[in-house]
Amino acid sequence: MGDLVKIFKAYDVRGVVPDELDEETAEAVGAAFVEVTGAETAVVAHDMRESSAPLAAAFTRGAASRGADVIHAGLGSTDLLYYASGSLGLPGVMFTASHNPARYNGMKMCRAGAVPIGGETGLIEIRDRAAAILASGGLGGQGGGTVSGRDLLRGYADHLRGLVDLSGIRPLRVVVDAGNGMGGHTVPTVFEGLPIELTALYFELDGTFPNHEANPIEPDNLRDLQKTVLDVGADIGLAFDGDADRCWVVDERGESVSPSTITALVAARELVKHPGAVIIHNLITSRGVPEIVTELGGRPVRTRVGHSFIKAEMAETGAVFGGEHSAHYYFRDFWFADSGMLAALHVLAALGEQEKPLSEILAGYTRYAASEEINSTVADQVAATERVREAFATRDGVTFDELDGLTVSGPGWWFNLRPSNTEPLLRLNAEAADEIQMAAIRDEVLAVVRS
Fold this sequence. Notes:
Blueprint (H helix, E strand, L loop, with lengths): L3 H4 L5 E4 L6 H15 L3 E6 L5 H14 L3 E7 L2 H11 L3 E4 L8 E8 L3 E2 L2 H17 L11 E3 L3 H11 L8 E6 L5 H9 L4 E6 L21 H10 L3 E5 L6 E4 L5 E2 L1 H15 L4 E5 L5 H8 L3 E5 L3 H11 L3 E3 L5 E3 L5 E2 L1 H13 L5 H6 L5 E2 L3 E4 L3 H12 L6 E3 L4 E5 L2 E7 L5 E8 L2 H15 L2
Parallel strand pairs: 2-3, 2-4, 3-7, 8-9, 8-10, 13-14, 13-15
Antiparallel strand pairs: 1-5, 4-5, 5-6, 10-11, 11-12, 15-16, 16-17, 18-23, 19-23, 20-21, 21-22, 22-23
């Protein structure tokens, strides 16, 4: 049994197995989940990590001990769990640690309709109730819930394919790097019957991640995909993270594509179907996204970083689509939940509907030069941020915004400096009209932060 305060994060549960998260803890969380949500039936899925199936089974015992029936979807991606929750109208739990190293595991929880459970919407209550169950010595002699299995992969694939028209696409050569994660389980079924010549990298499910971390936001983890795209002359490369809810795109030149560019592309497609609709983007997404959305007659809405903020804003505004710079993409037609696979299908449709190479299509959605997110270890996040504010305070035409961290905007450039919630880090994202200006702003901010 670990420290529940440590492993219950703002949006999910995440910890080292078994030191911080073990089966006894998962069992107590299962019981607490039912008590807090009032679930009569819940659906559970898990990724390919060695600890995932045992933890999911323990959670199931806990939920059943409180009288809830549990439907086991077995192996699945996180967006398959969202599909299960949405289509069945049931609360659900996904066992995964996403892109974290092999020794970690965790839980992503939602209410019926894939509504996320976070710190302000029940997660703290589940944590405290689980702690009380553990302190009292365990579950007690209750019971009554039933457990059944259900294969939802085909339904998930059919649902996604029903949201994107791929019927007229041209033959495509596609490389997919699943990183030994759940994309290796879902991609073959989702792509089945499409005119796609698939080159599969690391589709073997292996929670030890023997080839590279399943975290495509790190450039080193894209190297194999980029090389293979060039080697086989592919039209596109796709990389998924461990639980396959994020998707990263590589063009036919082997160049990594910014998630902001993909956000703009998918937004444009959604606005054709839903003229004038709201599109959500977080505040570190390229300024090109709201510009393009506005030009196409849509209404861009800016949010803080984090899926709970995006989903809440989408539900409030009725937005049809939302994108984050971390390669999470959210769809109203998918219960406002995120699906890397659905975003990938949109890109494949856009590519396959005409003859141009991907790089040429995407050129129209890329307007500015952006830095990657750059982390700096600092002893005092507040003091370092104040130094940056002071350094830019006297400049003409500069504005400040504190929606999430500190955003500083000037003529033709902007940057955002955000503190990490869990580590002594400041995260910098910068963008400008060209590479030279962006590099100058980036380097100046980093010099102040690290001084």
